[in-house]
Amino acid sequence: MKILKDILYKVAIESVTGSTDIAIHKIDFDSRKIEENDVFIAIRGTLSDGHDYIEKAIQLGATAIICDTLPGNIEKGVTYIQVKDTNTALAFMAANYFDNPSGKLKLVGVTGTNGKTTIASLLFQLFQKAGFKVGLLSTVKIMVDETEYKATHTTPDSITINHYLNEMIEAGVTHCFMEVSSHGIHQKRTEALHFVGGIFTNLSHDHLDYHPTFAEYRDVKKTFFDSLPKTAFALSNIDDKNGTVMLQNTVARKLTYALKTYADFKAQILESQLSGLLLKINDNEVWVKLIGTFNAYNILAIYGTAIELGLDSLEALRLLSDLESVSGRFQYIVSAGNVTAIVDYAHTPDALENVLKTIDDIRTKNEQLITVVGCGGNRDKVKRPIMAKIASDLSDKAILTSDNPRNEDPEVILDEMEQGVDAHNYKKILRITDRKQAIKTACQLAQPNDIILIAGKGHETYQEINGVRHHFDDMETVKEILEQLNK
């Protein structure tokens, strides 16, 4: 049991009705999970408003309500705390409830459009190899040392974050690497967390279904760095035009990484092959198993972070050379018929272009490049024609298909994608709504030495159609089809 007034520390309170000197069981923002002596925090979401469920929460046993607007009916024996912003209140209350676990380990946040999962996951891998107990909060999974949990959001809600950070403390974890999404920052999920460092990867077209403008998307990312303490480091990719913007107002120690310009951590690509990269990082050569220019940036961010967290530079390079690629990030197989199939999460125009250009850099041009790509439903529509244009411009053949149509008509999504294809590229494209059939067609079209890129879903093991998630794994599907064709 906790005392309510103790978990209200640092919460901006506007009014109190009732006593804060009461014992409470737990805190929650989901009225369906409320039990006797719980605190219900009314959050205004995009689809529903928690204030509409205050009465239900009280009926289920809530003894305290946190809200930004007091309800018309005040129940006797219930404490009402009116706050300026319930999202921010939730963040501080969650941290206080779990005794502020983020301050008891070294927490590093990774933000940007692309590369967050790769950088966070490989930092987890590197520090594990260095002998530390490590935590990970990522799109793909949550790790508490050796124990894996399923991830549901890129940046979970404040209660979930602090719950797992607390689990990490109990497991003896000393370092945690966390993806920080623009949604998470905007909804104050990272408020009240103590970060020892922040990493900026890059910024390109994404999430404009949520943020009204690109400028707001950029500025939300920037607030993460603005809030870092003086004791933290802010490591930014200054080859990206927004890299210096992220550092403008931060009081953290400013550090940079780049391939094209002078930076604290600088790299040069000496060799680029399907088997990996030979890099020169700050005058030392290192071979890594990751592929492409975009991964050279990721490796630099990982190296810079490792140095900032106290690893010896030569030890950091040795560990970099041992890192394995992340699930669904440029994962590839070569079939018995010598067809290379690559699965990548590239679901933004910038990411798709990077992957296709990487493949172009390492291919001989004597083979076909066949790209299978779709766009998600109920998400940013502006990028749909752009994605199709990139795929048709940079591939020998592009198959437009479904991603996660969700509640949209997949044919409408494909219509909108097709609008971006230039007239001279129409002969290159096929339109196959069923994703499995699209992948099968790509495999049937492929000749020995050809390359198939299956983009957009990466690590995901489902396809969401009309609100229902069906099992679907791109890598599993292409392996199975290629094996059948080889037989």
Summarize the structure.
With 487 residues, the chain is of the alpha/beta class.
Structural class, from helix and strand content?
A: alpha/beta
Low-confidence stretches: none
Number of strands: 26
Principal-axis shape equals globular
- Count of DSSP H/I helices: 15
Describe the largest sheet.
Answer: 11 strands, mixed
Q: Into which percent range does the helicity of residues fall?
A: 25-40%
Distance between the termini: 63 Å
Average pLDDT score: 94
Order of neighbouring strands in the sheet with most strands: 11-10-9-12-8-13-14-15-16-17-18
Strand content: 15-25%
Radius of gyration from CA coordinates? 24 Å
Question: Can you give a write-up of this model?
Answer:
This protein is of the alpha/beta class and 487 residues long. Helix content is 32%, strand content 24%. It is built from 15 helices and 26 strands. The strands form 5 sheets. The protein has an 11-stranded mixed β-sheet with strand order 11-10-9-12-8-13-14-15-16-17-18, sandwiched between helices. It has a 6-stranded mixed β-sheet with strand order 19-20-24-21-22-23, sandwiched between helices. Strands 2-7-6-5-4 form a 5-stranded mixed β-sheet. A hairpin with a 5-residue loop joins strand 19 (331-334) and strand 20 (340-344). Helix 4 (116-129) crosses helix 9 and helix 12 (383-394) packs across helix 13. The longest helix is centred in the middle third of the chain and has 16 residues, at 293-308. It is globular, with a radius of gyration of 24 Å.
Give the topology:
Elements: E1 2-3, H1 4-7, E2 13-17, E3 23-24, E4 27-28, E5 39-41, H2 54-59, E6 64-67, E7 79-83, H3 86-97, E8 106-111, H4 116-129, E9 134-137, E10 141-144, E11 147-150, H5 158-170, E12 175-179, H6 182-186, E13 197-200, H7 214-226, E14 233-237, H8 243-247, E15 253-258, E16 265-273, E17 276-281, E18 284-288, H9 293-308, H10 313-320, E19 331-334, E20 340-344, H11 349-362, E21 369-373, H12 383-394, E22 397-400, H13 410-418, E23 429-431, H14 435-445, E24 451-455, E25 462-465, E26 468-471, H15 474-486
Parallel strand pairs: 4-5, 5-6, 6-7, 8-12, 8-13, 9-12, 13-14, 14-15, 15-16, 20-24, 21-22, 21-24, 22-23
Antiparallel strand pairs: 1-3, 2-7, 9-10, 10-11, 16-17, 17-18, 19-20, 25-26
Helix pairs in contact: 3-5, 4-9, 9-10, 11-12, 12-13, 14-15
